[in-house]
Design goal:
single chain, 72% helix, 0% strand
Length: 142
């Protein structure tokens, strides 16, 4: 999938969508089941995290938009540091697993997706800060 979702507004909209799905999941109303809402929120969170990674890498290298997300996560070590890149990679892998549907597995629990939401929010902010340091290194030390 091409990386075209890099705007801050897009990331905010995806996080808001995840919040809405998680909030609606508590009452059980509407056309989606609570499990469907949790999985939908996991998808929105994964896409928001991918958009934040895309924005970080796009700020540096224009050619990185066409590579796979796994390759982007490897490149992220160079631009955001190994510790942050490791945390992003670990969460992306958990979200990817939570998005998959297997008929013999239970999907992610509401509480788990809620915890992922908090972590995605933190990582998105940290990636934005890393982007600012890369874009304006002379101002980072002042």
């Amino acid at each position: 999938m091409p990386a075209t979702r890099t705007g801050a507004d897009t990331i905010t909209a995806l996080l808001t969508t995840a919040d809405a799905l998680l909030a609606e999941g508590l009452d059980g109303g509407g056309p989606l089941t609570p499990a469907g809402r949790a999985r939908g929120a996991a998808y929105a969170l994964r896409i928001a995290l991918e958009a934040a990674v895309d924005a970080t890498l796009t700020a540096e290298e224009a050619g990185l938009g066409t590579i796979s997300m796994r390759a982007k996560l490897l490149c992220l070590r160079h631009y955001a540091g190994p510790a942050l890149a490791h945390r992003v990679n670990a969460l992306w892998n958990r979200l990817s697993e939570g998005c998959k549907y297997h008929h013999d597995e239970i999907g992610p629990r509401h509480a788990q997706v809620h915890a992922w939401r908090a972590t995605v929010g933190t990582l998105v902010a940290e990636l934005a800060a890393a982007r600012a340091v890369v874009a304006f290194p002379q101002q980072a030390g002042t």
